[in-house]
Every structure is written in structure tokens, then in C-alpha cells.
Amino acid sequence: MLNGKTAIVTGSTSGIGLAIAKSLGDAGANVMFNGLGDLSAMEAARKSLEAERKIKTAYNNSDLSKPAEVRRMVQETYQAFGAVDILVNNAGIQHVAPVEDFPDEKWDAIIAINLSSAFHACKASFAGMKKQKWGRIINICSAHGLRASPFKVAYVAAKHGIMGLTKTLALEGAEFDIRVNAICPGYVWTPLVEKQIPDTAKTKGITEEQAKRDLLDRQATKEFVTVEEIAGTALFLCSPAANQITGTEISVDGGWTAQ
Hints:
259 residues; alpha/beta; 7-stranded parallel sheet; single chain; 7 strands; Rossmann fold
């Protein structure tokens, strides 16, 4: 389905990003992986995709908190593959604390990585997508882009910003066959969510098991979303069936935002 296309997936060394990168690669796209975490799972996926799907892959280690590094990631993708057809802005970090205790440096880092990096990546890719008259931008947002939770002021602010970015760029790209959408997962069992459990438990004065149950209480299914479900949604948004879907969000949240 995506033969000849090239995708950048940020934060794709693990979790949601890795699952999306593998899914796009399985569909025939060349993939630029990105991230600063443990590279072992990503390297295994890269080698498997190249061997089994006969696609090209590469890895970029840009620090997405720095605009120049985001631009470098996009430039290296053009140099390696000649185009950027699909951009998945997935990289994200989290911190949980009451606003009066929220460290300034954590606010700055979350806004930089969860919101500003998506802007800089879109900006660096948009002209090329316009020129080729085709592009798909998928912003991995969150149920927190539609709903708020206490103690997550920076994350919620960033994800609400992602929704504004998504809608604006969808309008700017509409006549160039550039489709820009957001996926809003509920709680997905990833390293990011796993790291929240101790902080949430400490902040609320509860056990870690209670903190985990509190997360799932928001989701009517009482189940964590899987990374494969998010990856499947991203692949759909790159398919011809989604050609008239732009500027919107798809909630994959176990019924969280239905309540």
C-alpha cells in the first residue's frame, strides 16, 4: 500500500512509535527511525524490515528538544530517501506533580518535545509535501488533548496545543492532498505510562496498584490500549480509505472520552 513512500516516525525506539514504524514498514514504506532510548528493539525491527520487506530504513539520533536537531532529522531523511511523504510526530515525555511543585525545567522540556518538536518537523516537511502534492501527517496526541487531568499541567497543555496544530495544518494542506490528523489514545501500556505509576501513587498518597486501577477506571473497557491498535489506526490514516479525513482526531481510548 505504501510502496515507494518514506516515513519519519519520531520516538520510535520503543512503544507506540516502534509499533507504528513497523506497521508502515510492513506496508512498504521506507522508514526513518528516531529516538534516544534503548536501541536494541529498534535495531532488531530495522533489520527484520529490510530483510523481509526489502525496504530501506535508517536511524536518526536527533534531540527533538532542539529545533536545529529536528531540522537535521528531516534533512537527513531527504538525503537518505529523497522525500518525506509521511510524518508521525510521536515523541513525548511526561511529569506528574501539582502545579505549585511543577519544576520549570520539566514544563520547558515537555512543551519542547511534546509540542514544539511537532511544529518544527511539520514546518521542515511541509514545503516538500506541497511540491509533491501528497503528504500524511499523524500527530500522536492523547485523550489529554481533549480532556484534562490534575497534576499533568504541561502534558495536557502540550496535547491541547497539538490539536490546534493539527487543525491549522489540515486547512493549509487540504488543497495539496496533505492530510493532517491526530490519534488520541487513552492509556497505552508503554514505558511512558509505566513510569507515571510511582509518581502518581506518591502524589495521590495511594499504592502503585491503586494508581494503575485509577488509570483504567477512566476507560470503559477497563483495558489498556495496545500499541498495535494505535499502529493500525495510523496505517488506516495513510490509506486511500482515509483520503477525506483531515483536521480531526480519532480517539482510541477504550471509551474514556465518551463519558
